Amino acid sequence: MNQDRILLVALAALWGGSFLFMRVAAPALGPFPLIALRLGLASLVLVPVLALRGGMKLWFDNWLRIAIVGVFLSALPFCLIAWATLSLSAGVASVLNATTPLMTALWAVPLAGERLSVQRVAGLGLGLAGVAVLMLGRGAAFSAASWWPVLAMLGATACYGWSGHMARRWLPGLPSLVTATGSLFSGAVLVLPLALLSWPKAPAPAAVWWSVVLLALGSTAVAYLIFYRLIDRLGATRASAVTYLVPVFGVMWGAMWLAEPLTPTMLAGAGLILGGVVLLGWKRGG
Question: What is the b/e burial string over 221-246, where b = at least 16 CB atoms within 10 angstroms of the residue's CB?
């Protein structure tokens, strides 16, 4: 297994965990306070590291483009997902998040001039088939009212698809630490006023705060450094294919920590998803 595949699996595990942490913390804190804490704590970790490595000038020179990308790659989709997890389980939310490669591939046509080869179309199709199997395995049948959180998840993945391409177009050659730090900090500044207006009055239990810390440090600070590195190495479409693996970990973490059921249908869906990842291919430029 080469370095890119190791990074993809690690990123999938971290992002799969994010749905677990949001599912625990969002009901107690609310979407805006949770995401402000997520982005703010991650920024507090990354800004000193960036300063020590002499990257602040690069950030300031490119602050506007980094901020725009940050809004659509962190602040807006994070808030949409946190709101969706108020009613969706961690497993179902992570499954819906796997539409990101489809969104990214669709954005690639107007934004990157890419063509979808037969192999990549097959990979996308197989991965989406796995997503469908996972949905059926969870017995996901939505009422009319329940479509709002589903649409919020799809809106979040559309943001991911667009911003992945724009990060590569607008921020070429920037170190991943500069891009990750700047985008997360910008998102935190944007969400902070909304968080203050909706801050919960009741104190949150310890489990909620542990979820916030793990969400901010592992699933955000470390995860975004990995993601920007993969965008540089693989391109936006292939890097976003990590979200095919995220449902596998999302369902697994949900089963382990939230007692969400793990069924043979879910395992079959995971196998289809892994097959789609292989078909998409990881070789840069291919």
Answer: bbbbbbbbbbbbebbbbbbbbbbbbb
